[in-house]
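Action item from last meeting closed. Structure (241 res):
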């Protein structure tokens, strides 16, 4: 059996958040301001990624996005009180602190272990973001681990991650993950300013990039953009056979 991408759990969960931004009685993120105002991180989103008149955004500000995620979390019966507490503190302070981000991932590990599974192994990227390693193992063991990981991701980290990733890698609060990715690479000065979202999509379809897709800057931006990407050279957690 080959490796399995646990990061896909996070990506699928992130897609749920995108739906909630337009469902559950909430205003659509696409109806947010498209003026290009940056989030409270202080970074200015790159204007060069704009390839059409209007870019959909999660919210008009990081504060609004944090408040939305708190509402989403409170609407779910699957979210722990611990994650809600972190979000409440973040609404008051205006951001998710690094300490609270670390605490959420620690709670995630404890949750998975509490379900009788091995402690999850995480990868930490240069921008400070975490991602769950892919896993390898028997179908039975991998299936049980993935089930626990998905439940614990929702319970402990999903909404905190959506806010913190925006703070670190998506100050423009772009809703489209490709727009997030290109803006992140622009701000890291890893690609030329002339490089557009259309360029990225074309190269991704061909799997022929004009930059090193395995570079840590690229991988960091993938995580910040909630992209579930695994490569053969990535470390994996062996769950046994």
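Sequence:
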């Amino acid at each position: 059996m080959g490796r399995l991408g646990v990061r896909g759990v996070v990506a699928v969960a992130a897609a749920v958040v995108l739906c909630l931004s337009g469902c559950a009685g909430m205003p659509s993120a696409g109806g947010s301001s498209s003026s290009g105002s940056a989030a409270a991180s202080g970074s200015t989103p790159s204007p060069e990624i704009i390839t059409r008149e209007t870019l959909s955004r999660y919210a008009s500000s990081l504060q609004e996005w944090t408040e939305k995620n708190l509402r989403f979390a409170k609407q779910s019966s699957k979210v722990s009180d611990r994650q809600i507490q972190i979000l409440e503190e973040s609404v008051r302070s205006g951001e998710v602190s690094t300490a609270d981000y670390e605490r959420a991932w620690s709670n995630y590990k404890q949750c998975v272990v509490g379900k009788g599974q091995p402690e999850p192994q995480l990868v930490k990227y240069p921008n400070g973001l975490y991602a769950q390693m892919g896993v390898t193992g028997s179908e039975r063991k991998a299936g049980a681990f993935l089930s626990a990981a998905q439940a614990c991701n929702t319970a402990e980290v999903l909404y905190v991650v959506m806010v913190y990733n925006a703070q670190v890698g998506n100050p423009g609060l772009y809703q489209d993950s490709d727009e997030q990715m290109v803006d992140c690479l622009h701000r890291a000065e890893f690609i030329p300013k002339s490089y557009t979202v259309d360029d990225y999509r074309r190269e991704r379809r061909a799997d022929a990039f004009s930059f090193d897709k395995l570079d840590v800057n690229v991988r960091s931006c993938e995580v910040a953009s909630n992209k579930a990407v695994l490569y053969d050279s990535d470390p994996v957690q062996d769950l046994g056979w």
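Note appended to the action item: Helices lie at 7-20, 62-75, 81-93, 98-114, 139-169, 177-187, 197-206, 216-224.
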